[in-house]
Amino acid sequence: MSTLDLFPYSPIVERPSFEWPGRSRLAFYVGLNLEHFHVDKPSTALNDATTHLVPDPLNYGWRDYGVRVGFWRVLELLDKYGLRATGLLNSEVADHYPQLIEAGQARDWAWAAHGRTNSVLHTGLDVDTERAELTEIVETIEKATGSRPRGWLGPALAETFATPRLLAELGLTYSLDWTNDEQPYWFTGLPVLSVPYTVELNDLGVFGMKGLSGPDFAIMVRDQLDQLLDEAGSGRVVALALHPFVIGHPFRARYLDRVLADLADRSGIWLTTADEIAEHFAATFPRD
Questions:
Q1: CA distance linking residue 54 with residue 52, whole number of Å
Q2: Which band of pLDDT confidence, cut at 50, 70 and 90, is reported for residue 1?
Q3: In the predicted model, is pLDDT for residue 156 greater than 70?
Q4: Which of 9, 20, 33, 89 has a CB 3.0–4.6 Å from the CB of 24, allowing a cystine?
Q5: How far apart (Å, rounded) are the C-alpha atoms in residues 214 and 161?
Q6: Are the CB atoms for 177 and 155 separated by under 8 Å?
Q7: Given the DSSP bridges, would you call strands 26-34 and 85-89 parallel, antiparallel or unpaired?
Q8: Are strands 185-186 and 110-113 parallel, antiparallel or unpaired?
Q9: Is residue 15, in this structure, part of any structural domain at all?
Q10: What is the residue range of 61's domain?
Q11: CATH code of the domain in which 254 resides
Q12: Does a structural domain hold residue 4?
C-alpha cells in the first residue's frame, strides 16, 4: 500500500477559523499514560543491555516506579493547578493498580483506552481477532471506571488499518494515534475523529530518546504555547503526554511544576480533556 486512505490531505491554511469554548485559541490537555508491563517481556527500557533478562529488574523496576511513586507526585501537581487529566489506560491497570483509577475517578478524569498492556503492541491482528481484543479492552475499562471510554491510544501508538472502523463499531469517537496535525479531523467515512497527541512534547521522547533535561522540557512547552498563541491560526490543540515513570522523578517533576504554573498564568487557553476536545470539534464541524 503506497497511499493511505484513512483520512484526506487537508492543508491547515485552507481550513475555516474557529475558537474553542471561552473564545480560546488553544485547547490544552494532559495525556497521562497509565500502563501495566509484563515482567517476562521486553518493553520500554532505560538500558537496552539487560532487556534480554527474565526478570529484568533494572528496566522493570524503572517502569514500576511510575505506578508506585511517580503517579502520586504527578497527581499532586495536577491537583495543585486544578487540572483534570485524560487517563490513557491499559485495561490491565484495572486488575493490578485499581488505586490509580480510583484517584482519577475522584477527580472526574476522562479515560481513553490505551490497549491491554504496553508490553504487547496493537499490531499484526486480523480483523476478527482485533475486534475481540478491542471489545475486551473497552468493556474492562468501562467496568472499572463506570463509563465507556470515548477515545483510543494504541500502545506505542500502534494500530492496524482496521482500527478506526472497529473503534466506530464499539462506539468510540476518537483516536490519538495519528500525530500529524494541530487540529482534530474526521477519518474518511467514519464517525471517528483524530485528536492531536504528541511525540514531540512527550516526556518519554524528550528525556528518554533525546536525552534532554528538565529545563529543556520547560522551554519546549513554553515555546510551543508562545508560538501557537502568536500565530494567526485558530483552534489549535496542545497535548502534553506524560508517563509517571519518567516525569514522576523528583528532579523532573519540579519542571513539570514550572510548566503547569506558566500554563495557569496564561489566558486564551482552554484547559480541558481529549474527550471534550473531540466533543466540541464534532459539534462545530459535524461529519459530512
A1: 7
A2: very low
A3: yes
A4: 20
A5: 37
A6: no
A7: parallel
A8: unpaired
A9: no
A10: 26-284
A11: 3.20.20.370
A12: no
Distances (CA, A) of 193 to 19, 35, 149, 187, 285: 18, 24, 14, 6, 11
**Least-confidence region, from 51-55, 84-88, 180-184, 270-274:** 51-55
Torsion angle defined by CA atoms of residues 243, 246, 247 and 252, in that order, rounded to the nearest 10 degrees: -170
Question: Which pLDDT value is given to residue 3?
Answer: 60
Q: Is residue 153 part of a domain?
A: yes
- Burial of residue 65 (CB within 10 Å: 0-12, 13-18, 19+) is middle
Q: Of 108, 88, 90, 84, give the one whose Cα is nearest residue 29.
A: 84
- The position carrying cell 492543508 is 11
Distance CA(256)–CA(75), nearest Å, equals 11
Nearest to 247 by CA among 209, 210, 219, 217: 217
Rounded to a whole number of angstroms, the distance between the first and last alpha carbons of the chain is 26
**In the numeric block, which cell numbers belong to residue 202?**
512527550
- Across all residues in the chain, what is the average pLDDT? 96
Nearest-angstrom CA–CA distance, 166 and 164: 5
1 assigned to some structural domain: no
Helix (H) / strand (E) element for 250: namely helix 250-264
Contacts of 164 (CB under 8 A, 6+ apart): 6, 175, 187, 190, 192
d(CA 123, CA 250): 35
In this structure, the number of other CB atoms found within 10 A of the CB of residue 261 comes to: 13
State yes or no: pLDDT of 232 exceeds 80.
no
Domains: count for the chain: 1
pTM summary value: 0.96
Closest CA to 148 of 198, 233, 206, 89: 89
Q: What is the pLDDT of residues 57-116, one digit of tens each?
A: 999 999 999 999 999 999 999 999 999 999 999 999 999 999 999 999 999 999 999 999
